[in-house]
Hints:
By secondary structure, the chain is of the alpha/beta class. Helix content is 26%, strand content 26%. It has helices spanning 51-58, 106-116, 131-142, 148-155, 184-201, 222-231, 251-255, 257-278, 299-307, 325-340, 374-383, and strands spanning 2-8, 12-15, 22-24, 64-67, 91-93, 98-100, 119-124, 166-169, 206-210, 237-244, 286-294, 345-351, 360-362, 368-370, 387-389, 392-394, 397-398, 406-407, 409-416, 421-428, 435-442, 447-455, 475-476, 480-483, 486-491, 495-503.
Amino acid sequence: MRATVTAHRDYRIATIDNRIYGAFLEHLGRAIYTGIYEPGHPIANADGMRGDVIELVRALKIPVVRYPGGNFVSAYNWEDGVGPRDKRPTRLDLAWHTSESNAVGIHEFAGWCASVGSEMMLAINLGSRGLDEARNFVEYVNGPVGSYWGDLRKANGRAEPFGVKHWCLGNEMDGPWQVGHKTAHEYGRLANEVAKTLRAFDPNLQLVVCGSSHSDMATYPEWESVVLEHCYDAVDYVSLHMYFANRDKNTAEFLALNAKLDAYITTVASTIEFVRAQKRSKKRIAISFDEWNVWYHSNAQDKEILSGAKGWPHAPPLLEDVYNFEDVLQVGCILNTFIRRSDVVKMACIAQLVNVIAPIMTEPKGKAWRQTIYYPYYFASLFGRGAALRLTVDSPCYDSKVADNVPYVDIAGVHDEEARALTFFAINRHSAETIELEVSLNGFGAATIADCQVMTADNLEAVNTAKAPMNVTPKKGANASVADGRLSAKLAPYSYQLIRLALS
Ligand code: AHR
């Protein structure tokens, strides 16, 4: 099989916003406790944060980390997580049927973010709480010393405001499972009032309003339209979430799901435009895709804890999906979609980062390792920065339930002028055929292969574990070459490939 692609340096989609390589950490399962924080661990730092995890996270160059939830945030009192540890209350976490010790709160999380080189993106509880707590939280985090909340922060060890720019106005408020779930009118009005109030404190905050929890919600896409009618001029981003599953063990269908993701983005971007026109507004709102990943491997084992049969355990294993090689292909396709939709998707967060549906796993008191999906996320975050190219792709296709004409080759191209680099991320969705890829390079000048990294596996179900952490890893590829303004590469069946060209 052959696929031909045309790339031209002047045909660009947009400058990629680096925040599309964000991540998410929730007080859920072992994400925080024994994930990033484990004071008794042999390589924990003075703050009790695991050094091995810091290293693995730092390598990902994550611009922004969303925190502390998720469903958890909708019944969370941020005040429980500040002040002397021995005075912090243990609370029942109603979202995940567990206990929350509050040993980690905003101060500890800020310290951890500084150590991994990321900014915080904080979510506000608009489920069980409302406007007053929202403004108090923002004033505590960002307010000056000399005010009630600024002085309290100082008394708790931090005089300097944290200076957090990104704030999520609640989480998945369209979901009946959410504590304090609301109708679109109820939520839209509340979000508008909260946004107005926060802007009175600081007009430059970046505010994210909840869109649909996924595109199968009965209220989608009217939800976005109604919510934005209330708050269009007060917010900056609409938050979308999507999780991917292969419950039927149908790889072709599973790998076609980014067509559904693309349609979801298109619909919400159009709804934003619709409301913008209605309001005769000049303002542009973008999409924050602040939860995405594969999530289904752990569903069965989580049932017991979620049903309450185990009481209220503290930091039990929950949502510990063990990712396989097939998920590498899926995550590669998702990230390619965000690159191709960088015209409207300005932030995105892999959900989540450590232990809970995560690229990084840890053993309590033991090792930390990279799951299979760590690698496509790592490559995209490091090398998917610059201008997203509008590629013309001619690839053999197949029909699926979610879309017809799904190309066997999923490809995204990024031109980083500063680094003089041109990078392609290519996935071959075909089970049996090698695809000969040919990319015609126009306007880039002379190019040579700087790197080629290939991920393949004999078994789609191959995984990395504590005992075999290097089972699925990228290997240096030898099948890419450039001659006469053309890049040629062989894409093995079911493979992920990063091809990086150096431009002179
Ligand atoms: O990431 C796990 C959960 O998925 C989050 O808490 C929630 O927002 C979503 O439903």
